[in-house]
Amino acid sequence: EFAVARALKKSPHVAEVFCAPGNSGMAAIGVKATGIAEDDFKALKDFAIKEDIAWTFVGPEDALVAGIVDYFHAFDLKIFGPNARAAQLEGSKDYALQ
What we know:
Elements lengths: L1 H9 L7 E2 L12 E2 L7 H10 L5 E2 L3 H6 L1 H7 L4 E2 L3 H8 L1 H5 L1
Parallel strand pairs: 1-2, 3-4
């Protein structure tokens, strides 16, 4: 996630970058850590609304498999990543074989 956050921060099209939960090293590149756990979908959704986040990028596979994209879409929030069903293909070899 650090490399993606750094690339987004360098983009002239991106004003601000937040990372959840983030770490202290992110501050060195101008990325703000939220401290919100990646599996706390409600807190992440509330943060995205409060901060008027234009797009959310999801790095952790576990959050994708757990359905964060579907959850954000239910609130009409823009998020980049596969829905839970599609994420299962990457997250579970058993699912992919079925």
